[in-house]
Amino acid sequence: MPSIQKVAASVGAMELRTTDVPKIKPNEVLIKVRASAICGSDLHLWQWDESIRGKLLKASDQFKHGVVSGHEFCGHVVEIGKDVKTIMDDPNVKLAVGDFVSAESHVVCGKCYQCTHGEKHVCVNDKIIGFDRDGCFAQYIALDSSCVWKNDADLPFEIAAIQEPLGNAMHAAAHFPLKDQRVAIFGLGPIGMFCAVIAVIHGAKQVIAVETSPTRIEIAKTIGVSNIIETKIIPFPDEKGRAEERARITKLVRDAAGHDGPDVALEMSGHADAMVNAIKCLRRGGKLIAFGLPKNQAFTFDNYSGDVIFNGLTVQGIIGRRIYDTWYKVRDLVRNKKAQDLLRKVISEVAPYQDYPRVFEKMLAGKASKCVLDWGKA
Ligand SMILES: [Zn+2]
Ligand SMILES: [Zn+2]
After folding, report:
1. Using CA of residue 136, residue 142, residue 144, residue 150, what is the dihedral sign?
2. Ligand nearest to the CA of 44
3. What's the 170 CA to ligand 1 centre distance in angstroms?
4. The overall pTM is greater than 0.90
5. What CATH number belongs to 176-317?
6. What residues pack around ion ligand 2 (CB closer than 5 A)?
7. pLDDT higher than 70, residue 71
8. Do the domains 2-166+321-374 and 176-317 sit in the same CATH topology, yes or no?
9. What residue ranges do the domains of the chain occupy?
């Protein structure tokens, strides 16, 4: 079967190779991949960032062999292991050959404290497909049945393929109810963009977004974002210029929301200045969702007591998806035709899988939002 693998510890080094169709274990399911979506973390893999090196070096045994990339997909069940009983933590859901499925990308242990106390999304032994083991940029994937999610048979394949990252956005955006809230989103990468769609569909009173990329700003205009604020990325000539830009953005967000500031801020960019702006723009008693991963781990509060304590902020870090609470919320969203239309605007391209180098380059150049690779009809 064809598969796209990371084959060496260097930039690029993702090759289309022919490999054997994986053999399933008794608790696994073999899935013929219909489409797989490219994630920002796959771009990090391409660029060979420090953030993902350790996982890949371990999974490839120091690149004695390649590792199939990809962790966001949909496909059809072709074989079910003899020990597979149920899926989705629901004894009423039965799996059959031919079913249209997607999958949770975190294979969890089911044994640690978190797994046995309703917090599988923060399992201490989790393995992520496409990083810790072979992924879904392939014609077939074998996967533990505990990860398999059954889709509606008529769900469009390009929507089915993006449910995993949509789950990240749902976990972040729906942590606090957004109905009638004034929401500010910092960073409109695909997950930030999905958060905007969720805020619109969930009935937010106002969706304000702060973004740098002209491509993303154009998309944001089509999905119901009410106020788009363009900002610049450093290098600023000096710290003073940078501080002035922070103050400008904070003021624009507060003015847009009304002088007291938005009710909820979603920090989706990982930029330290955006984090500061998100904290400073909120109204007293506001809520902050922290999702973006900063490149520089340390960041400074210049007025921690005033901005966080006296303002009574709630700060919530978000990782992964709640298994399977978040997936059920995503299912409600993708069954909504208006949501499907908005999500299609966030998908820049559905390309044949052989085109992956061009699509990766386009995404790396900031000229695309979410992109999907098509592995062909079942
Ligand atoms: Zn992802
Ligand atoms: Zn666990």
Report:
1. positive
2. 1
3. 13
4. yes
5. 3.40.50.720
6. 108-109, 112, 115, 123, 125
7. yes
8. no
9. 2-166+321-374, 176-317
